[in-house]
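--- STAGE predict ---
source: upstream dedup step, 1 unique chain passed
mode: sequence only
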Amino acid sequence: MSPWISAFRPRTLPLALASILTGGFLAKATGHFNGPVVALAALTTILLQILSNLANDYGDSQNGADSVHRQGPQRAVQSGAITPAEMKRAMWGFGAAALLSGVALLLLALGLAGAWVLLGFFVLGLAAIWAAVNYTAGSNPYGYAGLGDLSVFLFFGIVGVCGTYFLQAYSHAHELTQALPLTVLLPAAALGCFATAVLNVNNIRDIVSDELAGKITVPVRLGPQHARRYHWLLLLLGVGAAVLYVALTYHSPWQWLFVLSLPLFVFNGLQVWRRQESMKIDPLLKQMALSTLVFTLLFGLGQVL
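--- STAGE serialize ---
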């Protein structure tokens, strides 16, 4: 595999798209679906995720988290396949592409009429780019202070789902009061919890190397067993948010279709609890990401059927 393709970390992209798909499904269920808006939102999200992955590769190599102690897949900068200078140029390129794609998305969805709304989303987009880069890169990466979980919850959940829904609804109604029902926060929170659970699996796997490098993730703070209890909490909160959303908006038994994905989360929780060796935990990262995508598809289909 090309070192660049590996550095893009394709297995993370379906997870990044899950919140966009959820926002699209919810808009479809309420008659606000806008295909071009969803497509541009998906493109912007993919570019941001790749930017984040490149910055993570670069930042961890510079700050010491990628070392001989790391148990996960070898990174491109760490291995020497890509130089730090090349990685920084790629980060600038994907950052610029994400900015252009985001601006195109906002102009398509909002036009120039909603100037304050446009400005607010533009600032939010800049914040997303900053968060993608400064998770592990920069002089004071927030991921090293244990704030990665909060960032993932917000951007992969709340911002991704609510933002995608809002842009479609506003493009139809041009009314702030009609653009974002509070109930949308529940599936957004569910996606945020599941995405955070993916990060938690990653951080449990890397707990030894992260602690040695001074990367104080939530599992490093909590310790291995409490981190596993935290993992179960994330899974339960995610499922609970989805259940509450259906209960509050119930109109069809199809809305419970997502229940078919629950065994996947139970399997992940049990295996994370039982597996103690880092390399045995690594496959559960991909399994959790795919479980989230399955949940997204079943949940979304249940809302539109």
